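Query structure, 183 tokens:
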């Protein structure tokens, strides 16, 4: 069983570290049945309406266990008069019960979120139809609007070519004239 020191030093680990035997020892039969229905294999078989009821029952029992644990803690610290014949000596069992119910409630919430996401996701069929429509629209835009050809290739001006008439016979005189005089 957990001691107060174990719980205080391992607050985060305490939530997930209880074994099945410890859970059976801490929880009563009804609470154990609720927690067992939230285990990974069993929770997938629970219908949505029962999942909502399960969350409500877990939340009610968790809140009750939390309130009792807080009252017990105040009793053994001397802040409040004991409710029974003697003041509580510790609240580790009640605190472990609240933690176990909290973990089960988180599993139910995660399952509800997973189911909601699954319903929001589009089906494979609708995704395939959307992809096909996008592909057809793209192909339609790529086709020319008319059957006439384009203007074809366009000439590229060569900037390194010689001045007009510099290399052929007709322009020989002007080329010789340019070479004689300095620019």
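Result returned for the query:
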């Amino acid at each position: 069983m957990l001691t107060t020191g174990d719980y205080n030093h391992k607050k985060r680990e305490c939530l997930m570290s209880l074994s099945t035997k410890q859970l059976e020892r801490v929880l009563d039969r009804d609470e154990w049945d609720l927690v067992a229905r939230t285990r990974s294999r069993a929770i997938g078989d629970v219908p949505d309406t029962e999942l909502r009821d399960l969350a409500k029952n877990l939340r009610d029992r968790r809140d009750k266990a939390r309130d009792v644990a807080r009252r017990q803690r105040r009793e053994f610290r001397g802040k409040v008069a004991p409710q029974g014949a003697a003041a509580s000596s510790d609240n580790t069992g009640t605190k472990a019960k609240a933690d176990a119910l909290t973990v089960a409630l988180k599993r139910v919430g995660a399952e509800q979120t997973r189911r909601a996401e699954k319903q929001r996701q589009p089906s494979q069929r609708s995704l395939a139809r959307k992809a096909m429509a996008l592909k057809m629209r793209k192909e339609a835009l790529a086709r020319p609007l008319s059957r006439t050809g384009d203007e074809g290739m366009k000439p590229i001006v060569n900037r390194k070519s010689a001045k007009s008439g510099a290399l052929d016979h007709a322009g020989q005189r002007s080329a010789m004239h340019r070479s004689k005089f300095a620019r």
